[in-house]
Amino acid sequence: IVGIVDFDKVCVGDPATDFGVQQYVGTQFMHEVIEKYVRLGGDPGDNLAERITMAMQIKAIQDLVYGIETSSVYRGTLARIKRSFLYKQGQPSLR
Fold first, then answer.
1. Who contacts 29 (Cβ-Cβ below 8 Å, separation ≥6)?
2. What is the distance between the alpha carbons of residues 30 and 92, in angstroms, rounded to a whole number?
3. Band of the pLDDT at 88, cuts 50, 70, 90?
4. How far is it, in rounded angstroms, from Cα 53 to Cα 17?
5. Angle CA(86)–CA(61)–CA(82) in degrees, nearest 5?
6. Residues 52, 63, 73, 65, Cα dihedral to 10°
7. pLDDT (tens digit, 9 = 90+) per residue, 15-74?
8. pTM
9. Residue 79 and residue 49: Cα distance in Å, rounded?
C-alpha cells in the first residue's frame, strides 16, 4: 500500500476546511499548500484566516460527537476544542 484515498465526506465546500486540516502536519505546511493553491490559480476567498478558525472549531466539535457516539474520544480532543475556541479572531495568521 502506498496511500489511501478516503472519500467518506466528499463534497463541494469551503476550501478553508481543507486548508485547516493541513495544520495537523504543521502551520508552515498549511501556508505552503495555500500559496501553491493560489499560484495554480485558486481563489481562497476573503477572510480566509477567520474561515479556517471556524472550520477547525466545527471539526473539533464533530470529532467530540463522533467520539461520544463510538465511545472512543481521541486523546487530546477536549484540549483541541479549548485551543480552537481560545484563538484570537483572525488566527491563524496567513502572513
1. 22, 23
2. 10
3. low
4. 9
5. 25
6. 140
7. 999 999 998 899 999 999 999 999 999 999 999 999 998 998 898 898 889 999 999 888
8. 0.73
9. 21
Q: In this structure, what C-alpha cell is assigned to residue 50?
A: 477567520
Tell me how far apart the alpha carbons of residues 69 and 71 are, in angstroms, rounded to a whole number.
Answer: 6
Q: Name every residue whose Cβ is closer than 8 Å to that of residue 61 and which is 6 or more positions away in sequence.
A: 81
- Answer whether 48's CB lies under 8 Å from 34's CB: yes
**Nearest alpha-carbon partner for 45 in 11, 12, 14:** 14
Any idea what the Cα angle at residue 48 is, between residues 10 and 73, rounded to 5°? 50
Q: Read out DSSP for 35-86?
A: HHHHHTT----SSHHHHHHHHHHHHHHHHHHHHHHHT-PPTTHHHHHHHHHH
User: Chain centroid to CA 31: how far?
Assistant: 12
